[in-house]
Amino acid sequence: MNRRSKPTKGESTSPNKKVNDLAPFREKSAEEFLTTNQGLRINDDQNSLKAGERGPSLLEDFLLREKITHFDHERIPERIVHARGEAAHGHFQVYESMAPYTKAKFLQDPTVKTPVFVRFSTVVGSRGSSDLARDVRGFAVKFYTEQGNYDLVGNNIPVFFIQDAVKFPDLVHAVKPEPHNEMPQAASAHDTFWDFISLMPESMHMIMWVMSDRAIPRSLRMMEGFGVHTFRLINAEGKSCFVKFHWKPMLGVHSVVWDEAQKISGKDPDFHRRDLWEAIENGDFPEWELGVQIVEEKDEHKFDFDLLDATKLIPEELVPVRRIGKMTLNRNPDNFFAETEQVAFNPGHVVPGIDLTNDPLLQGRLFSYTDTQLIRLGGPNSHEIPINRPVCPVHNTQRDGHMRQTINTGRVSYEPNSLGGNCPMQAKADMAGFVSHAQRMDGSKVRARSEKFFDHFSQAALFYQSQSEPEKAHLVNALRFELGKVEVAAIQERMIGMLAHVDRTLASRVAQGLGLAVPNKIEGPLNLSIPADGNAKEFQPKPVSKPVQPSAALSMANTIKDGIKTRKIAILAADGFDAAAFSAMKKALEAAGAQAKVVAPRLGQLKSSEGTEVKIDFSLLTASSVLFDAVYIPGGDSSVKALTANSDAVQFIGEAYKHCKAIAASGAAREFVNASCLEDDGVITGPDAEQGKIATAFIKAIAQHRYWNREMKDRAQ
Ligand code: HEM
């Protein structure tokens, strides 16, 4: 027997240095004997050692004890936030050298592919919660550069709820399930969250984003990412500029609707995880462009807001986003726990050429991540876990601790030393030694924020007013839903008051849905601040003082809608379907890069009217329209008759229509569709003879993503 294991995918042949780096740690059991952790071959893994066939188990049974003990310790604490996530390997390539701005080596050479590991996550829910919760998505990228690991630990929303890290535990306590009954799971629609928010005017900009459809993405592959904070870039001459990082998805930014999100949570709670996994397995590698907004140091104070305030963004109209490179994810992890669960990000993992700012939220994060990983990953050596190791050498005088893997040789574990030739030695800046930017500091030691931080509503108003009408309606409904779940009326009223500061129409639309009136004055206390003289003063936030200039980049209505690549289309059919229409449509959809899946009343093979057969991908029991982007029904009398009599099929079409999706039908199926759908944009029907025309129109319709005008027709606002 060949005792050597076969190489796994990507191993030794992969151009990705990190993928190769993981190779020695991959275990493959094919053609191997079962052993203990000590390598002892096991002869019987069915029975514990007993005193007689019917006797008690013996303490001596080290095989049983080893197996059960390991099992008993298989779980580690889940992340305190962002517990649910999924990840993938890939690489990043810069388009052209960024040397004028940064000396970071991975941003110099367009021919270099830097390995990355990217973990997406929800924030609030536990590890087993649904992907489709209304929530912020984490977008954490670990670049394995030749100068060490650089982590860009961002979100899919460019701003944050709070300005200072000292409020983070309060925010998280408020939004997590309530402490007395651990409800609700993975949801912000409850009293403690809105109680906190209604007392925190600085959260209002973020609330606009989280109540928008950005918080229910169609796919992780179709959402933006943001570094959120202002960072610094430093070039070889030591010149610094400010930078905001963006990830722009090549597939555009798309979302589902809230009713759909709730249904997906039941039908497939792994919807995003599955979508990412399948896309990579199918070779449809997700891609994002890295964008930067660069602000020269001299311009630091030219904005109405403070660059150090994480509740503000820089409108793209003021500073355009320059796309500087592309990230491609092309390999799923081999093992969820070893890679996705054990990966440890930290915004403080930087490389020469990238530096931090005094943003008080960022400053707190710099402490928090390593600190929490000490308990989550069990000690100070989590950087030695394969997924966390840099691809460049690590040498220092740190030693020992739980689960230490490195065998440091020699007597020297201190510096300076003469016994080891004073090695490992410090690196000068021109040898890629990290030098913190020498920012001049002058200030009193105070617990305070700069005045510009207190303009809490202008950018909230900017976001709301930049939305299209359907987006505004979704935002209003999200607030009605969330506040509708709040039991204490005073919290609802305080929130309406707060919304009135953002936009009076928004407040009154939400109030109408709750059966409330817009109050004249916000109920305090708001941002209770204690000035240096010790007298408590109630801070009243500044109203929006200038007319808002809407920003097109903030509305998803303006995203790319130029194709249907990777979209999942249901072909709904029963026995007796029209084979020619079916094949023509399937071919056209697949040629356009979509996935066409056959959904039928049962599983197995489906027979066409001509007797040919096709494989059924899903039965109506195992699929639902909410799991697809669009639906097509081919003609064929008996197929259409069977579907018309099937309430699940009728519901399938009805829901696709309600969720504003493209629907197409040909031949006899036209009547079936017309019975469930009003004649409308995005509903394409025609005779079998016009199959080519129908397919072209259908593909164009799917690319539009959704037909919101259907909602607007029956929406009484
Ligand atoms: C702009 C604001 C913030 C962003 C964009 C952000 C983003 C993220 C992301 C993406 C993760 C998941 C990392 C992963 O996939 O493993 C994460 C985890 C975490 N964040 Fe933040 N976060 C923010 C603010 C904060 C603040 C202010 C704190 C604390 C002061 C904090 C503490 C944590 C902790 C403790 C974890 C869990 C880390 C782990 O267990 O490995 N975050 N954050």
Architecture overview:
The protein has 717 residues and is an alpha/beta fold. 27% of the residues lie in helices and 15% in strands. It has 19 helices and 18 strands. It has helices at 17-22, 62-72, 168-175, 191-198, 204-210, 258-267, 271-281, 336-341, 360-376, 458-465, 469-484, 489-502, 504-514, 579-591, 637-644, 647-658, 669-676, 691-703, 709-714, and strands spanning 85-94, 114-122, 137-145, 148-155, 225-226, 231-234, 240-249, 287-296, 322-331, 354-355, 568-572, 595-600, 605-607, 613-615, 618-619, 630-633, 662-666, 683-686. Strands 1, 2, 3, 4, 5, 6, 7, 8, 9 and 10 form a 10-stranded antiparallel sheet that branches. Strands 15-12-11-16-17-18 form a 6-stranded parallel sheet, sandwiched between helices. Strands 13-14 form a two-stranded antiparallel ribbon. α11 crosses α13. The model is unreliable at 1-10 (pLDDT under 50). The structure holds protoporphyrin IX containing FE (HEM). Protoporphyrin IX containing FE (HEM) binds at residues 79-82, 85, 119, 121, 138, 140, 153-155, 160, 165, 168, 228, 310, 343-345, 361, 364-365, 368-369, 372-373, 376.
